[in-house]
Amino acid sequence: MSDLVLPAASRSRRGLRRDWLGGPVPDLAMLLGAPTLALVAGLLVGIDRRWLPALILVDIWLLGYHHVVATFTKLAGTAEDRRRHRFLLYGLPWVVLGATALVAATAGIWLVATVYFFWQWFHYTRQSYGIERAYRRRSGGISWDSPRLSEATLWSVPVLGILYRSAQHPARFLGFGIWMPRVPWIIVEAVGAATAALVALWVAERIAAWRRGELPLAHTLYLASHFAVFCAGYVLVDDIDQGWLAVNVWHNAQYIAFVWIYNRGRFAAGVRDDARVLSWLSQAGARRAALYFGACLGVTLVAYRLIAWLAGAISVQLRVAVLTVLLVAVMAVNFHHYVADALIWRRRAGAAPAG
């Protein structure tokens, strides 16, 4: 995320530091729109669990697949990107697909589902950490806020969430068997107390900063949404599938918005010869934004329809269920996304990747 270069943050009339990455509209869509969408999705399932399959389907097709495709605008957006990431584009997908298929064939789908659940939790948290760092840099470093303490606070809520979910010890996740470690409730309670203390300290520091006129608005809103979504998705909601849906919607919508903000900054100078289509789609204006999202969605539909067609053809040849082959293929795409995403957003200086 080091390529996201913007002017220094400015102060508003109320003394808040306006530390937008792309401007009030796109940032607020990510900071408020994404978590609201996530919590509403989770709430709807809580009202009537029969809505879960339909909401998962909408989430996957409009956000999930789209957010995976968005990675490729960074991975292969320009000729230089394709040269630099040659192995990630042409080699790693086959390695991941082979490894996923081998695990499914030898250990079973339950292990694939288990790896997906825990790796996804880490991926969500790591991406959130990376975006928090981007806002911190945008704010000029926030000298009064300890980076180490901030990092500990950011991770504390997700860690509490995964421990809480493990202590619940659900047997199934999205219809598949899953292995969960047995965590004693006393550990969950101890971590919960430490997490509550860290978040309370964070709130107190933010209130003090607001009174001094030094509150970084976007950074604060982002961390607040991070705490709210992870707490709701992993702790307040007992149903593992309902909680997963809420966090997944937030993660997907957040990533799509962030990559768009990144591409807007990347091609702010105008259309580039080495990336004519992407740089043209990434120019300012609501029309270009609509065309950008429409193009990504179109690529998504074509790519995943092709995957579904290939899964059907392979299942006939191997005489196995289409759903099994399709699940392995989709999981392999997700796992490739996790690896590639972690590498392409890593800063040259060795700082943490986005996720």
Please give the order of strands in the largest beta sheet.
1-2
Are there runs of 5+ residues with pLDDT below 50, and where?
A: 1-8, 347-355
Give the domain tally: 1
What is the helix fraction of residues, given as a range?
over 70%
> What share of the residues does DSSP label as strand, in percent?
under 5%
> What is the 3D shape?
globular
Structural class by sheet pairing and helices: mainly alpha
SSE order in H/E notation? EEHHHHHHHEEHHHHHH
Ends: how far apart?
11 Å
Mean pLDDT: 86
As a whole number of angstroms, the C-alpha radius of gyration is: 21 Å
Q: Strand count, sense and closure of the main sheet?
A: 2 strands, antiparallel
* DSSP strand tally: 4
Number of helical regions: 13
Summarize the structure.
The chain has 355 residues and is mostly helical. It contains 13 helices and 4 strands. The chain has one domain.
Task: Describe this entry's structure for a reader.
It is globular and about 70 Å long. Helix content is 74%, strand content 2%. The longest helix has 33 residues. The chain starts with 9 loop residues before the first strand and ends in an 11-residue tail after the last helix. The chain contains 13 helices and 4 strands. Helix 2 packs parallel to helix 10 and helix 5 packs across helix 13. The protein has a two-stranded antiparallel ribbon with strand order 1-2. The chain has one domain. The protein is mainly α and 355 residues long.
